[in-house]
């Protein structure tokens, strides 16, 4: 589908609903408006057309020129065949940030350090200021304590102390990015502990400094307010994982052979991504909505029990801080 046609359809269909939540009550005189291009869970090593999806996003970002872009993890492993994919990301002329996802390490035998070096990512967790706002990127892949099976999803002692100190040192409204959620099942195992750290960081008016926490990982779309902080799930650019029980072959044999895990997904027809606007003058933030459809057979077609909870969309959201 051509980009203009998809954008038109997204405006018509992507605004599923719009919510307005009171958040922190910041007043930032003479503050600028920031725009942030956001993409989550492209999964270049699982989806067969990750390059085209990222190309679509990047063409739009180059046209719109947001203040920075960020990918929320599960992006692409440092395999030679993925270099053209990374080259597309690196075309952006402004700041472009990375969040580490669980599939960005260990898969295909690669390490976190190899992926970071390939992305030219200097630190696995870090922070930066842009205008009147502060941004924190966390790494949710620390080793879980005790016996643990599967991918690690934890924030360890050193990173927790760094986070507390970083929040103490800023007076600016703060947005947190982390791959795995801090509030959902299957997210950060000590998510409640990390949420408490975010909640304890207060400004001079005793309001939370953190105005939003954005996550990927779960390939879903919702916002949950916990003690005045909205935790916003950013849907995958590419698909919903459904596992081997519901696997279906949708593409040509050579595609399925090159990307054997794609049959365990319900792919989205068009790429999903969003732009977050932070307006310091009005104290409002806006998350763009976008919607597409599943490539058939859909979750309903193949009889997935919770198919009605699977939506190939990102909901438009209006929040205040």
From TrEMBL:
Q: Report the Pfam families cross-referenced here.
A: Metallophos (PF00149)
What SUPFAM superfamilies is this protein classified in? Metallo-dependent phosphatases (SSF56300)
Query: Which residues belong to any copy of the Calcineurin-like phosphoesterase domain?
Result: 35-220
Q: Which InterPro entries match?
A: Calcineurin-like_PHP, Metallo-depent_PP-like, STPP_CPPED1
Under what name is this protein listed? Metallophosphoesterase
Origin organism is Agaribacillus aureus
């Amino acid at each position: 589908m051509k980009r203009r046609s998809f954008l038109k359809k997204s405006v018509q269909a992507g605004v599923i609903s719009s919510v307005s939540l009171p958040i922190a009550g910041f007043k930032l005189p003479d503050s600028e408006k920031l725009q942030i291009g956001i993409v989550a869970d492209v999964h270049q090593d699982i989806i067969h057309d990750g390059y085209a999806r990222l190309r679509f996003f990047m063409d739009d970002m180059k046209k719109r020129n947001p203040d920075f872009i960020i990918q929320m993890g599960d992006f692409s492993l440092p395999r030679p065949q993925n270099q053209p994919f990374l080259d597309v990301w690196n075309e952006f002329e402004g700041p472009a940030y990375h969040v580490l996802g669980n599939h960005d390490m260990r898969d295909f035998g690669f390490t976190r350090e190899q992926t970071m070096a390939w992305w030219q990512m200097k630190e696995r967790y870090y922070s930066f200021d842009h205008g009147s706002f502060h941004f924190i990127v966390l790494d949710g892949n620390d080793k879980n304590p005790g016996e643990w099976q599967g991918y690690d999803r934890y924030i360890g002692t050193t990173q927790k102390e760094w986070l507390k100190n970083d929040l103490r040192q800023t007076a600016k409204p703060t947005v947190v990015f982390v791959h795995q959620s801090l509030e959902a099942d299957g997210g950060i195992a000590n998510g409640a502990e990390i949420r408490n750290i975010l909640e304890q960081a207060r400004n001079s008016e005793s309001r939370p400094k953190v105005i939003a926490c954005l996550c990927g990982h779960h390939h879903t779309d919702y916002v949950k307010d916990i003690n005045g902080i909205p935790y916003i799930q950013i849907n995958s650019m590419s698909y919903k994982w459904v596992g081997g029980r519901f696997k279906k072959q949708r593409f040509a044999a050579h595609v399925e052979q090159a990307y054997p895990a794609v049959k365990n997904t319900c792919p989205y027809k068009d790429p999903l991504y969003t732009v977050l606007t932070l307006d310091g003058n009005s104290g409002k933030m806006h998350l763009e909505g976008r919607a597409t459809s599943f490539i058939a057979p859909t979750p309903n077609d193949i009889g997935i029990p919770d198919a009605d909870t699977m939506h190939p969309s990102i909901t438009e959201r209006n929040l205040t801080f």
